Amino acid sequence: MNAQEKRSQLKAKLARHDIVVAPGIYDMISVAMADAMQFDCLYMTGFGTVASYLGVPDAGLATYTDMVNRVTAFCGNSRTPLICDGDTGYGGLLNVMHTVRGYERAGAAGIQLEDQEFPKKCGHTPGRRVIPAGDMVKKIQVAAQTRDDANFQIVARTDARTSLGLDEALRRGEAYVKAGADILFIESPERAEELETIGKTFDVPLLCNIVEGGRTPQLSPAELQSLGFSMAIYPATGFLAAARALEHAYAQIKAGKGTMGIDNALYPFSQMCELMGFPEVWAFDRAHAD
Q1: Mean predicted confidence (pLDDT) in 170-183
Q2: Which domains does the chain carry?
Q3: Membrane spanning segments where (predicted)?
């Protein structure tokens, strides 16, 4: 399936109003694992991608070049549509145009753009500040005008709820939809009642960001769908699970216990070889053996 087909597939699923659940992917192993499970969509998490690729916080330190590199690798190794974090567009309006072109060319099914000041900060963390709504409206307009494929999804995220309140976040959401956003992402609502209000306010695909330990209450996908949401992303789940597993396994080794006692907690080596494509390598070697 090529990029155009993946975008068309995702847009059609969103139009049916059945909620799309998208796990967060952040490196090539997480891409391979999630892609094999045949989700409807994957979400390239900025936090996890920046952490795994650069080892720094998701605080505006990654460049466009860093991130489009990851978008290209992830999309090129996945049959599943990917929505990819594009931060603030990495600058002004010209940067937004360049970023949208790059992400679309790399094979993304959509790009998430947010209205934070630069340097941005990860959602669900303190200290986030937003730019004037009018400036973000222009970014969304440029993004919508720049894409070549009308099925390439523009996800508009506002971080206004935390610092300016829900009413301002709703006002911004309305403006961003009018500017051309396909999916609306109001970050960090703090109560189920706020999620309900968001769902009643908009008649466009709505995205809910579920972060374990974050500000937003964890409702099931079915509950979110009943409130009017079309997509639930789980950006941190994968890398939090991996970090916990690594901590446990490495602690066993550090304690001099080796790994014999944690066999059941480890993904089988044979399955990892298969996941990463070694059977094709072995078949090639056999076909070209002397």
Answers
A1: 98
A2: 3-235 (3.20.20.60), 243-287 (no CATH)
A3: none
